[in-house]
Amino acid sequence: MSTPVKKVPIHLQSSQNRLVIKHGKIVNEDGISEDDVYIEDGIIKQIGKNLIIPGGTRTIDARGKYLLPGGIDPHTHFEFEFMGAKSVDDFYQGTKAAVAGGTTMIIDFAFPKPGESILDCFYNYRQRADDKVCCDYALHMCLPHWSDQVKREMEILCKEHGVNSFKMFMAYSFMLNDSELYSAFEQCQKLGAVAQVHAENGSIIAKNVEKILAKGIVGPEGHELSRPEEVEAEAVNRACVIANQVDCPLYVVHVMSKLAAETLALARSRGTHVYGEALVASLAKDGNHCKHQCFDYSAGHVLSPPLRSDPTTPLALMNFLAQDVLQLVASDNCTFNKAQKELGKANFTKIPNGVNGVEDRMSVLWEKGVHAGIIDPQRFVALTSTNAAKIFNLYPRKGYIGVGSDADIVIWNPNATRTISEKTHHHAVDFNIFEGMTCHGVPEFVIVNGRVIVDEGQIRAVQGFGKFIETPVFPPFVYDPSKLESLKPQRNGTDEQAIQNIREIEKIQFEEKAIPSVTLPESVVNTPSGKAPRPEGQRNIQDSTFSISEELDTERKSCIRVRNPPGGKSSGFW
Ligand SMILES: NC(=O)NCCC(=O)O
Ligand SMILES: [Zn+2]
């Protein structure tokens, strides 16, 4: 039985912030139901049949379609300065592409510049991203070196800034050695953070590179030759061993080979708390594309660890995802234009590493996984959003369609198809690794925090609409799985208490947090826009002055976030 919604004061009523989606099939990782979903102020308020809703509410008919939790891409690199180039998808273009493809939250990697502290790096990323993001985002922090200061600042990031994951590299010039990895993992464990690794043996790669270049192999085909599967698998094993010594949950980013996935499977079977991420590129492409005679094409496929020449790899990785050896699919979106890739024309080691994927991740996984009959829609949801929400402690606010969760929803047409092309994608980059691929599964509507951003296939991205989401430490999924069941929201109903329980997380994070003691550099506090994150209460996510794009300037007034709206606080719009 449904209950009528509370009477809303007239001044809070606006058809803008209310939406009902009818007749769709709601897919969560734990089940499918046919119910209507009522959204108000950016939050899912009711799920059920014959809901009683206020007049003037927009209705979307989702008959024959799925309602999926908005995708969470846990691995992007927007405007990332790397290998002498800067990735061309910035936080605006990158998140716009994300939303166009059904992803409603991304987690980017903050990467400190040489000499920059990880705290300053965090502030700088916030400053860069906050005004640009079209959807919610969080940050992982990379640790390109180890020191006592890094250790201290990790604590500040965890306790005061909502960062709960740190990435260490076992390759590249900024890799950590085993002793440093041990210390970094130990600190993650103490703080309740998730340790992440880029797992490749950098010392072996350096020796291989010398040998391969000496043989005169300078083209993109040399990239994989220098980084064979066992070099990846060895690092996966070593990271698991080190994490085990300090009992730290470990997340291996971009598992790219069968051997590495098998190594991870073995560690999991021994009880290591390790989670593995596949990249969407590796499910659709193999390393033979790096042997093409056209440099732009081959170089466009260069990333690390490399796509594997073994043509059975994409299907094998898909099966590892089906069997829960791997838990998520990310994009590692790090896009470089052809001209930037040409930095490595005479030497493959100079090709900026990275490919696109944030826009096409969901469609490509649907095609290769669901449409191919390897996974069902529920597993698709786990791989594209729920597991990321659980591992990074966003669940059940994100990654779930339940009463009280954020209204991040995709209306997915499994029967429609689209053909991917650089000519029509929403990225800033002039190349698409999936060019020409036709996928079943099209996001016809994408609802971000209650607002319809993709509307019957048309995107109306709003710059600055997204907000930074803090990721609290000690995610139950990795630190105490027995607690997870009790967190799960109602799949059905209208219970105000359930809504309060989930919103409690937000309240703690944004309203009741102790004032941090850290002092910011002047340059960060006195930003020209005045919108940089600041410790004294953080950037106010309900800042009524946040900017939106020119294209939607007329909508500015209808979606203003306020801290203390008349009639009491709401976490959405009024
Ligand atoms: N993966 C890649 O090749 N580029 C992005 C940086 C990284 O994740 O290592
Ligand atoms: Zn990456």
UniProtKB/TrEMBL annotation:
EC number(s) per entry: 3.5.2.2
GO aspect biological process, one term: pyrimidine nucleobase catabolic process
Keyword field: Hydrolase, Metal-binding, Zinc
Subunit-level organization: Homotetramer.
Residues that bear N6-carboxylysine: 167
Family the entry assigns: Belongs to the metallo-dependent hydrolases superfamily. Hydantoinase/dihydropyrimidinase family.
Keyword Hydrolase: yes
Class in the EC hierarchy, top level: hydrolase
GO molecular function, a single term: metal ion binding
InterPro entries: Amidohydro-rel (IPR006680), Hydantoinase/dihydroPyrase (IPR011778), Metal-dep_hydrolase_composite (IPR011059), Metal_Hydrolase (IPR032466), Metallo-dep_Hydrolases_sf (IPR050378)
Catalytic activities: 5,6-dihydrouracil + H2O = 3-(carbamoylamino)propanoate + H(+)
Name used for this protein in its record: dihydropyrimidinase
CDD domains, per database record: D-HYD
Region described as Disordered: spans on this chain: 521-574
Stretches assigned to the Amidohydrolase-related domain: 66-452
Cofactor(s) essential for the protein: Zn(2+)
Transmembrane segments: none
PANTHER family per UniProt: COLLAPSIN RESPONSE MEDIATOR PROTEIN, HYDRANTOINASE/DIHYDROPYRIMIDINASE FAMILY MEMBER
Lineage: Eukaryota, Metazoa, Ecdysozoa, Arthropoda, Hexapoda
UniProt biased composition (Polar residues): 539-548
A Pfam family: Amidohydro_1
